[in-house]
């Protein structure tokens, strides 16, 4: 029903309506407990988010279950987006060095920020999927055949994409190919705390089965602790940044970051 209504509303109008709604919603939640670094606003609480699907709890998929104080009421940044911001701000020079950046399936809050920065040559691509209508702002892309030269980018951000891709090894090798030597990428995925080995089942084709098996209708696997090995196989050096194990200059509680969520950063 929701997607039928979306189809009737022109894209530009949908964006305007959502913008107006977000302004009102952000205003209603104004307060001092939480801070969103993307829209630079403070809130008394954030919106809840996540899904209540049994396999998410059974396999302890980090950052996927239903939780309070997850979504910024003003710009819709998620806890995982705010972790990305924290990393970019405190562990990289992305806010002041000249950088060519490739952003795959861009998160709205991060796209607005990065695309506005004059030091960044910003390229984004997304695979159009039913249900992601309002994010249809960028060029279509097949991540298993990236239409760019070898070593074209200093930085790649590709979060929560690989769990949708059947041949993720090919996608990871393509990301490696287009990254410059000395470059780095953030490659977040939903990951199980308890699975040693990634769970896949190629017979799970229909959305209902995928939701039951993997926790979302369009996921094709649940990554386990061997995700790191999959990245290393392509040639990447993998480093994880845990919010509670790293030192940060800002108050993590205010950002409402999930303390269990490691940020996967790869280097070439
Ligand atoms: Zn925000």
Short description:
This protein is α/β, with parallel strands linked by helices and 268 residues long. It has nine helices and 13 strands.
Describe this structure in words.
The chain has 268 residues and is of the alpha/beta class. The chain has one domain: Rossmann fold, CATH 3.40.50.150. The chain is built from 9 helices and 13 strands. The chain has helices spanning 2-8, 11-28, 54-58, 79-91, 108-115, 168-178, 207-214, 227-233, 252-255, and strands spanning 30-36, 41-43, 47-49, 67-71, 99-104, 120-126, 139-140, 153-158, 179-186, 199-200, 221-222, 237-241, 263-267. Helix 5 links the parallel strand 5 (99-104) and strand 6 (120-126). The longest helix is centred in the N-terminal third of the chain and has 18 residues, at 11-28. It is globular. Zinc ion (ZN) binds at residues 36, 38-39, 41, 72, 74-75, 77.
